[in-house]
Design goal:
heterodimer, A: 660 residues, alpha/beta, Rossmann fold, 4 domains, 31 strands, B: 302 residues, two-stranded antiparallel sheet, elongated
Chain lengths: 660, 302
C-alpha cells in the first residue's frame, strides 16, 4: 500500500487507544462493599461468554475505527481493487506501450484502448515517485527517456497504429536498459491488450526475460490489461487482387475475407469498394467466424496500375474496417529453384514452370545452394529450396523476401545437418521400406496449399504414397500429417508471407509426388500464385517494415492527427514514380493476425511472470476508475461501519442490560 | 422495663407509638405462666371453651350444677387456657447484613425491629430469646420473661457485628431442635441463601409447631443494581472481590435476583412462614405497625 501522507502512519499505534482507555477505565473503577454477591457472581458467570465476545467486538470495532481514520488521513492509494499495493519510490519507471492495431479499439466516446490507457497511466504516475522515466513503445522499440510522465500525453504516441507488437522484444529492451544504466528499484508498467500474436507467449524469449528479471529483486512488473474484446466487431481483408482483361474489357478480380467476432446472429454487412472515384457496395451475409468473398469483379478503365480500398461500416474496432489494395499489370511468375540434387531441381523446375494460366508468363531460375546468395530476390515470387537450410546473409535475404509477401517451400537435404531456419530444422530421414508405404493420415483442407479446389472438390492427398520422410524439428502448423504422426507438409509461423517445409522429396525413391503429380503441382502453383502479389507492380507491406523515405508519397486519405513521419505506420497507400516513369504503389495494412488473434489467457500471462513481483490490473474500455486511486473513502466507510457496529453492540447492551 | 440504658436502636417515640399494639402468635402457644396467648391446653381462665361429661377423678369443683339441674347429668365446664408467648428473635450475623446504601444498614434495621419486638413481647409478659447467627458459632440467649432479661437481650442485639458467612438455615434447624415448646420465631436476615435450604429449615420449625415470621431485609441498591461504571465489588462475607461492568451484567443480575425472590416466596408459602420483604429505606416503625396490626386483625389460629 502506498500513501500520499505516509508520515501520518506514525499515528497508527493510536489504534490501540480504545484498549488503553479500557484498561485505564478498569483500573480506575470504584470500590463497593457488596452483600448480594451470590447474584453478582451468578450474573458474571452467565455473562462471561457472550459478554466477553461483545466486549471484544466493541473494542475491536473501536480499534478498527481509529485505524480506519488514520489510514484515511494518510491518503492511501491503490490500483484496481487494492491490487497495486506495495512499493515505495522507484529509481526508474519504464513504460512499455503496445501500439498495435488492436489497441485502436474505440468506445462510444471515441477513446481508444491506447489513449485511455495512457491517460490512466499518467494519472497513476501522479502518485508514483521515480528518478527516471523511460518509454519503450512498440513502434520505436528503443528506450526513450522522458522528463516527466506528463510527456506521455504530449508525445504523438496516443494513436494506435496498424502495426503488430513484439512484446517479448519490448520487455527485453526494458531489461537491457536496466542492466546498461544500472538503475535501482524499477517498475515496468506495461500497457497492452495482451493479444496472443503480440505477446507470443509460447516464445522461448520469455524464459530469458523472466530469468533476468528474477536475478534482481528490485523489479516490479505491472500490466494494465485491456483484454476485453469488442462484442460486435467485423474485419475485412483483401486476399487477392488481380487485373484481368477479357472480351468485356479490363477488370479487377478481388478476393476478400470478412472475419466476425463471436455472435449468434446472422447479419448482412455492406462491403464498400472504392476504386478511384468509383464506389460500389455489395451486401455480404456473414456469421461468426470467417466469410470469404472470392472473385468479385470491378470493371476497370484503361489504368494498369492503381489502388483502392475495401471498407465496412464502423464498429467496435475502427482499425480493421478498411483494407487498402493496389494493382498493376500481371507480373511474370518467377520461381527460384535452389537444389543440391540436379534431378530434383529439374523436377521442381518443371512443376513451377508448367503454365497454369497460358495467358501469364512464367520464368524459372535455378541455382545451387552457394549461388543462391547472388540472386536478386526482388523479382522472385516463389523459392523452392532443396538442401541444407540457408544461413547468414542468405537467410536474412530470404526472411526479408518472406516478409514482403514471398513464399518459400523447403525440401529436406539428402544429408540433414544442424542448420535451422524459421524456427525449424531437419534432423534425420525415416524410411518405410516395406509395403504399404506411408499414407497421409490427415490434412488441412479448408485453406492454404491443400485447400479444396474452387469447384469445392478435395485434392487427392490421400493417394500420396511416401517412402521416406525427413523428420522436422521446430514450431509450425502441420498442414498434412502422415500416418506415423509426423508432418508431411508444415507451415512455419511468420507474420507475413509463407514458409513451408515439405518433408519428402519429388523422386521415386522418396514419394509418388512425380507419378501422382496433381497434389504436388497444385501445391507449388498455389504457393506461386499466393506469392505473386508482391510482384504485381506494387507491394503489400506490413506497417513498420516499410520506410517511405523521400521517394514515396502518401496517396490515400490524409490521416488526422498523425505525424507525417508516422503515416507509414497506419493503413495507407504510398506511391512513387520510378526512373522508367512507371508508377508503383504500396499498400500498408495491418497483419493478418490482428484480425483473428485472441487475448492471451490471464493464467498464461501470470505464468510468464511467475516468481516475479507482478501485478495485473484488468481494465475495460471506458472504465472510469484510475489505475492508482486514492482509496481513503474505503477506509472512511470502513470506519463508519465499525462505529455503527460498535454503536449497535452498545445499544444492545443498554436495551438488554437495564431492568424493565 | 428494667433496661435503663439508652439504645441507639430503641427510639422511645416508636416504642410509645407501638406499645399499644399487641404481639400475637398465629397459633396456640405453650407457656409456663398464664398470659394473653391462647394455649393448646384447657384451663381455668375466663374464656369458656366447652362442656364435657364428668368422669370419675375430675375435680368436682368444676361441675356445672346448673347444667346438672337442667339435664340431670354431670358436666364439667372447661375454659381456654391462656399462657405466655416465647419470642425467639433470630438475627443474621453474616457480613452481607452490614450493607446499606442509605442511612441504615441492614443490621441496623434488624436491630431496630428486634429491639421493638423484644420490648413489646416483654411488655405483655412474654418471654424473649435471641439467636445471632455467626460465621463460626451462634450466640444463643434462651427466652426468659424476666424484665431484667430484656437488657441482656438488648445488649446482645447492640453487640452484633456482622462478619463472614453465616448459615442461617443451619441455625434455624438447630433452633427448631433446641426450643421444646411452641414459640414465635422471628428471623431477621437478607436471606441470601439457597431457598431450598431455607425451605427445609422453615418446614423443620413448622413441624415443631413454631410460628415462623421472616423479615427479608433488602437494600434498594441490591434491588436496582444501578451502577454507572466498572466497579470492584468487595464481598462483605469475605469472598474474592469481583470487578465487573454493571451495565454489562445488570440483566443477568436482575434475572438471578428475580429467580431467587420467586423461589423464596414459594418456599415460605410452602412452609407457612409469615414472610415480609422489607426494603430498608422504608420506616421500620411503619413496617412493624403493619406487621402487628395484621397479626392482631387475623387473630390467633389453632
Amino acid at each position: 500500500m502506498s500513501f500520499l501522507q505516509p508520515w501520518m502512519l506514525f499515528a497508527l499505534p493510536l489504534f490501540a487507544l480504545p484498549v488503553i482507555i479500557h484498561l485505564i477505565h478498569r483500573r480506575k473503577h470504584s470500590t463497593v462493599h457488596w452483600g448480594a454477591m451470590m447474584f453478582l457472581i451468578e450474573a458474571t458467570r452467565a455473562s462471561r461468554g457472550w459478554q466477553r465476545i461483545r466486549h471484544f467486538l466493541i473494542l475491536l470495532f473501536r480499534m478498527l475505527a481509529v485505524a480506519g481514520l488514520i489510514f484515511a488521513i494518510s491518503r492511501p492509494i491503490a490500483g484496481g481493487w487494492l491490487g497495486l499495493a506495495g512499493g515505495g519510490p522507484a529509481d526508474c519507471v519504464i513504460v512499455v506501450l503496445d501500439r498495435s492495431a488492436s489497441m485502436g479499439v474505440r468506445d462510444l466516446r471515441g477513446g481508444t484502448k491506447l489513449s485511455q490507457g495512457i491517460d490512466k497511466l499518467v494519472d497513476a504516475f501522479k502518485t508514483v515517485e521515480a528518478n527516471h522515466w523511460v518509454l519503450i513503445d512498440s513502434i520505436v522499440g528503443a528506450p526513450r527517456e522522458l522528463d516527466s510522465p506528463e510527456d506521455l500525453r504530449d508525445l504523438p504516441i496516443g494513436n494506435a497504429t496498424a502495426t503488430s507488437s513484439d512484446m517479448p522484444s519490448l520487455l527485453q529492451a526494458a531489461v537491457e536498459y536496466r542492466e546498461v544504466n544500472k538503475v535501482g528499484r524499477t517498475e515496468i508498467w506495461v500497457l497492452s491488450d495482451t493479444q496472443s500474436h503480440d505477446w507470443r507467449n509460447e516464445s522461448s524469449q520469455w524464459g530469458g526475460i523472466r530469468d533476468q528479471l528474477m536475478e534482481s529483486e528490485q523489479v516490479r512488473v505491472l500490466l494494465l490489461s485491456y483484454a476485453e474484446q469488442p462484442a460486435e466487431n467485423a474485419s475485412v481483408r483483401v486476399t487477392r487482387v488481380q487485373r484481368t482483361v477479357d472480351d468485356e474489357g479490363a477488370a479487377l478480380t478481388i478476393d476478400l475475407v470478412l472475419h466476425r467476432a463471436q455472435s449468434d446472429s446472422r447479419e448482412t454487412i455492406p462491403v464498400e469498394f472504392m476504386l478511384g472515384s468509383a464506389r460500389s457496395v455489395i451486401d455480404v451475409p456473414v456469421t461468426a467466424g470467417e466469410t470469404r468473398v472470392d472473385g468479385h469483379k470491378i470493371p476497370l478503365d484503361e489504368a494498369t496500375t492503381g489502388w483502392g480500398k475495401v471498407s465496412i461500416p464502423d464498429d467496435g474496432n475502427e482499425s480493421d474496417n478498411t483494407f487498402y489494395f493496389t494493382f498493376g499489370a500481371e507480373p511474370t511468375r518467377r520461381t527460384l529453384v535452389v537444389a543440391e540434387n540436379m534431378p530434383i531441381a529439374r523436377i521442381l523446375g518443371l512443376v513451377a514452370h508448367a503454365p497454369r494460366d497460358p495467358t501469364l508468363q512464367y520464368e524459372l531460375e535455378a541455382q545451387n545452394i552457394e549461388g543462391a546468395a547472388q540472386v536478386d530476390l526482388d523479382s522472385i515470387a516463389l523459392i523452392l529450396w532443396q538442401g541444407t537450410l540457408p544461413q547468414g546473409d542468405t537467410l536474412d535475404d530470404i526472411e526479408r523476401f518472406v516478409d514482403s509477401g514471398g513464399r518459400v517451400i523447403f525440401f529436406p537435404p539428402i544429408n540433414p545437418g544442424t542448420e535451422s531456419a524459421f524456427g525449424s530444422k531437419w534432423t534425420q530421414w525415416n524410411r518405410q521400406d516395406g509395403v504399404p508405404k506411408w499414407r497421409v493420415d490427415s490434412w488441412f483442407e479448408k485453406g492454404d496449399l491443400l485447400r479444396h479446389t474452387e469447384a469445392g472438390r478435395a485434392l487427392p492427398v490421400g493417394e500420396l504414397s511416401i517412402t521416406e520422410a525427413c523428420l522436422l524439428e521446430g514450431d509450425g502448423t502441420t498442414l498434412a500429417r502422415l500416418e506415423t504422426g509426423k508432418p508431411l507438409l508444415s507451415r512455419a509461423v511468420t507474420t507475413s508471407g509463407g514458409v513451408y517445409f515439405c518433408t519428402s522429396l519429388p523422386r521415386a525413391t522418396s514419394s509418388n509426388f512425380v507419378s501422382n503429380a496433381v497434389v504436388f503441382y497444385v501445391m507449388v502453383q498455389r504457393a506461386l500464385e499466393d506469392a505473386v502479389g508482391r510482384l504485381r507492380g506494387h507491394r503489400q507491406q506490413s506497417p513498420g517494415r516499410f520506410d517511405p523515405g523521400n521517394d514515396w508519397s502518401l496517396v490515400s486519405e490524409a490521416l488526422e492527427g498523425i505525424l507525417s513521419s508516422d503515416r507509414h505506420l497506419h493503413a495507407s497507400v504510398f506511391s512513387r514514380t520510378t526512373e522508367s516513369s512507371e508508377v508503383e504503389h504500396v499498400a500498408i495494412n495491418r497483419s493478418v493476425e490482428e484480425d483473428t488473434s485472441a487475448p492471451v489467457p490471464s493464467e498464461s500471462i501470470d505464468l510468464l511472470f511467475e516468481g516475479l513481483d507482478f501485478v495485473r490490473v484488468d481494465e475495460t474500455l471506458g472504465g472510469r476508475g484510475s489505475v492508482l486511486e486514492e482509496v481513503w473513502r474505503v477506509f472512511l466507510i470502513g470506519m463508519i461501519i465499525a462505529l455503527v457496529a460498535e454503536a449497535i453492540l452498545c445499544l444492545f447492551d443498554v436495551q438488554g442490560g437495564r431492568r424493565s | 422495663m428494667a433496661d435503663f440504658v439508652q439504645r441507639e436502636f430503641l427510639e422511645p417515640k416508636v416504642l410509645a407509638r407501638l406499645g399499644a399494639l399487641p404481639l400475637f402468635a398465629r397459633m396456640a402457644m405453650q407457656g409456663t405462666v398464664s398470659g394473653r396467648h391462647r394455649s393448646p391446653h384447657r384451663g381455668s381462665s375466663v374464656e369458656f371453651a366447652e362442656y364435657r361429661k364428668y368422669v370419675p377423678g375430675d375435680d368436682t369443683r368444676r361441675l356445672d350444677w346448673r347444667a346438672y339441674a337442667r339435664t340431670d347429668r354431670f358436666y364439667i365446664k372447661e375454659f381456654e387456657a391462656e399462657t405466655n408467648l416465647r419470642l425467639c428473635l433470630v438475627i443474621d450475623g453474616s457480613g452481607s447484613m452490614n450493607f446499606g446504601s442509605g442511612a441504615l444498614s441492614k443490621i441496623a434495621y434488624a436491630r431496630r425491629i428486634a429491639g421493638v419486638l423484644g420490648y413489646l413481647a416483654l411488655s405483655q409478659g412474654d418471654a424473649v430469646g435471641l439467636t445471632v447467627v455467626g460465621e463460626e458459632e451462634d450466640l444463643d440467649i434462651p427466652p426468659r420473661r424476666r424484665p431484667s432479661h430484656l437488657a441482656h437481650v438488648n445488649d446482645a442485639i447492640a453487640e452484633v457485628e456482622p462478619d463472614g458467612e453465616a448459615d442461617v438455615a443451619r441455625a434455624l434447624h438447630e433452633l427448631a431442635e433446641r426450643i421444646r415448646q411452641r414459640a414465635l420465631v422471628v428471623v431477621l436476615s437478607d436471606l441470601f441463601v439457597p431457598p431450598e435450604a431455607l425451605e427445609s429449615a422453615f418446614q423443620h420449625l413448622q413441624f415443631q409447631k413454631h410460628d415462623v415470621v421472616a423479615f427479608q431485609l433488602l437494600d434498594p441498591q441490591e434491588i436496582e443494581f444501578d451502577f454507572g461504571r466498572t466497579t470492584r465489588f468487595v464481598d462483605l462475607e469475605g469472598g474474592a472481590p469481583v470487578v465487573a461492568d454493571p451495565a454489562a451484567i445488570a440483566r443477568k443480575y436482575n434475572e438471578s435476583f428475580e429467580r431467587h425472590r420467586n423461589a423464596l416466596d414459594d418456599s415460605c408459602r410452602k412452609a407457612n412462614v409469615d414472610f415480609h420483604r422489607v426494603v430498608i429505606d422504608q420506616p421500620y416503625d411503619k413496617v412493624l405497625a403493619d406487621f402487628l396490626i395484621g397479626r392482631a386483625q387475623k387473630g390467633p389460629r389453632s
